[in-house]
Write a structure and sequence with these properties.
Number of helices: 6
Order of helices and strands: EEEHEEHEEEHEHEEEHH
Oligomer: single chain
Structural class: alpha/beta
Number of strands: 12
Radius of gyration: 18 Å
Helix content: 25-40%
Strand order of the largest sheet: 5-4-1-6-9-10-11-12
Shape: globular
């Protein structure tokens, strides 16, 4: 399972809060895995963008849909979960039915934290291998690595990126593992490096079952 894109949270029946991530790196990862013969599914948060490459695609239209779909996939059993989605950290505490009437001088919103879906997936996923992502802005690479390394308690790889190193299709990431850190430039190369990492986790038994 590869997750990607935003996870919108509704304000009312029409409006929603959504971040700027669209899931292009996640699509590259799912495509790379598919071409290598993996049974890869891209779970894309709804940001009005769809990949053109042929791949198994599911759309999560809200944060709640994304959370429930990820946990359900993990419970069913996954070899690996690659969690590149830009998951919403907060949601409105109360969602209004219908459409809020426009024209008010202000619209106060009280937000509450969302659940950490990656943790829920790892709890539900048993032996699932996890690739996590960490995105920060205005920090040094040393600080980025320090923060990303905290995820290595349960993830075998953390793909760490700074905002200043991401411009459109251009992206530079640090592949943070327990045995060291490797910089990789370009979305296609990042996708390939993640696939390479997952291949190191397969066993002869995995290969035999895939062939069957």
């Amino acid at each position: 399972l590869v997750t990607a894109g935003p996870t919108p949270v509704p304000i009312d029946g029409v409006r929603r809060i959504v971040n700027r991530f669209r899931g292009r790196l996640g699509a590259d990862i799912a495509e790379e895995l598919t071409w290598r013969g993996a049974d890869a599914e891209l779970l894309l948060g709804d940001g009005a963008w769809r990949p053109l490459a042929p791949m198994r695609l599911s759309i999560a239209r809200t944060y709640n849909e994304y959370r429930d779909m990820v946990v359900a996939r993990a419970e069913q059993g996954l070899f690996a979960g690659i969690f590149s989605a830009g998951v919403a950290d907060y949601r409105p505490k109360q969602v209004v039915d219908g459409k809020i009437v426009s024209g008010s001088a202000e619209l106060p919103l009280l937000l509450e934290p969302t659940e950490k879906v990656i943790d829920m997936a790892m709890d539900a996923g048993g032996a699932m291998h996890t690739v996590a992502f960490k995105y920060l802005e205005n920090v040094s690479e040393e600080e980025l690595i320090r923060v990303a390394s905290k995820r290595l308690d349960r993830a075998s790889l953390v793909v760490a990126t700074r905002g200043e190193d991401t411009k459109g299709r251009e992206q530079r990431a640090l592949m943070v593992r327990r045995d060291g850190v490797t910089p990789v430039a370009g979305k296609a190369r990042i996708a390939s490096a993640i696939a390479d990492h997952l291949e190191t986790l397969t066993t002869p038994e995995d290969t035999r079952l895939a062939a069957e």
